[in-house]
Amino acid sequence: MSSQRTPSRTRLRSAVLLAAGLLLPLPLLTGCGGGDDEADGPVAPQDIAAVPRSKVADKGTLTWAVNALPATYNTFQADADQASQRVAGAVLPALFTLDGRGRPQRNPDYLASASVTQRAPRQVVVYKLNPKAVWSNGTAITSADFEAQWKALRGKDSAYWTARNAGYDRIDRVERGANAQEVKVTFAKNYTDWAALFTPLYPRSVMGSGSAFNDSARKELKLAAGPFAVGARDAKQGTLTLVRNPRWWGNRAKLDRLVLRAVPPEQRVAALASGKVDIAEITPGAAERITKANTPSKKDRSDKGRPGIIAPASASPGASPGAARAEGRSDQSRVDGANKPAAADVTALRGLVVRRSLEPAYTQLALNGASGPLADERVRRAIARAVDRKAIAEYVLAPLGLPAEPLGSHVLVAGQQGYEDTSSAIGSVDPKAAQALLADAGWKAGHGAAPQKKAAGITSGVRAGGRPADDDDDPDGTDPDDPDGPGEGPGADGKGTLDTGDKAGASPARYKDGKKLTLRFVLPKGAGAEPLRAVGERIARQLDAIGVRTEVIKVDDASFFKDHIASGDFDLALYGWPTGAFPATDARPIFAKPQPAPDGSLIVEQNYTRVGTDQIDRLFDQASTELDADAAHDLMARADARIWAAAGSIPLYQRPELVGTRKTVVNAGAFGLAAPRYQDIGYRR
Length: 685
What we know:
6-stranded mixed β-sheet, 4-stranded mixed β-sheet, 26 strands, alpha+beta, 20% strand
């Protein structure tokens, strides 16, 4: 069997562990789009305490918590991280930005206009620059900067260690247009996502040589062309200061300084309460404590189930309602120990507020189709039909007061332009259909040899309900604890809602050729990933209901991606993907069919499920060259339906965005689908 590998450093992007789960990052892409004003699907509005600039103080320092200081200032390098993107958004040109509905809009600070002026025989795009646009040394932004960036990122010069070249590899030439403020870009092959290019735009001093691109831009960013510029970095204190750019021609930044401070998620409530930071992404448990501190105690007791309070323990797998009422606290409250009020007094917490929305990102159940039982599409489809996505979405999102609909797309989230629910291609939750698919694939209920004892040194899995994964069945394949006895178990008599985690309901295990159907379910074991594990436990219970056993393997957060997801060492896993405004570009490497490499290995790009088809690839290719927006959306919807049918990835819910801020902070918080306007962020007058 050939080995499997991800591509070289020119394509590999690392995983990032966030407070509420694992999100594998894509490049920051923004661009233009047309269409009507109607949002596609339910959308959670941004929550940023929006006020006019006239009501924002013209001074102040705001400190923003990040996971770590930027590993590099070059967002086109493989190890660019969340902080790298934040710095770029504040100091570098973004030709297009996303509005509150995730629709790309031309940024007038940089562009007077941008349009496709010719479609055949070759696509031509002309950018007309704002004549006031200059770098912080006074040099005008010109076509020379565009040309240098194209040459660095097109993938033809190995001196540049680039993380991606999508789109730039389709350009034939970049040249000056009719005057110094005009840039003409001619494509060798049509590119629907042309507006995603040149954002962020770097000066030619960064893009002009491999050494500057690879090394200099990692350590410093001397030039800026945004409302802020890079200032002092203090590695000891874990801070990076952005200062007002005196050459900025747009609306003057309201803040004197914007400071990024590295703060671990478990320390953020204490940091907010003490004044160490003013804004931070936080966990659900931290959000609950801030909300409770700002709610009178009597009302807090009477408003059980109020939006914004996290699900009580009764909503967690295996917990009894009575125990939950006695404890009166959530799963997450028990997890985020470092965020307890002992580390931050209640008085200080009352100066804080929780902003909440939904991110342009989702959490999925990944099914590794490379080998084992999940190599059979019928088994994957059975898993998909057994998972109650609606119940899981409600479990995660409803207690936060957020729209709790399951996500219906792999390529866009609700509210983004072009979003379409194509999940009908796999079908709704149906235990009888799931069991029929398993039977058709040869996995029969209650027919197997006696389970063999595990060899010494092998980690035991845990079945939902706390029983060992390999010790729950009698030699005849029946479960001694199963109240239903040998039959097909819950839901066998027709469609219905599966067990959502509140009580056990296992069907007899399934066997094929004497081997029991058991899947390795890999989850991170860090405290910040507890909500993700709670979802995993609910899924394990739902699979128990159709006779599929899971061996839950909890691994270190640091090794979860590298040693398990990227290497393919899992059957089932939970992690997330962001969704950009350009799915034909953003989503293709995630769902592209793995291809054999000359050395016999398998290049999977970012398709860690190893499930793909030639037809999906063709639809992505067609969408990427289609210049008509409606036709491109239709092609992407067709590709998405095929992805559902292949059943390698099961989107569960759009990720919640919870941000703790000081009550006086305005124009910042949970941005939802929008891009921040850094020059407008500040403190209320």
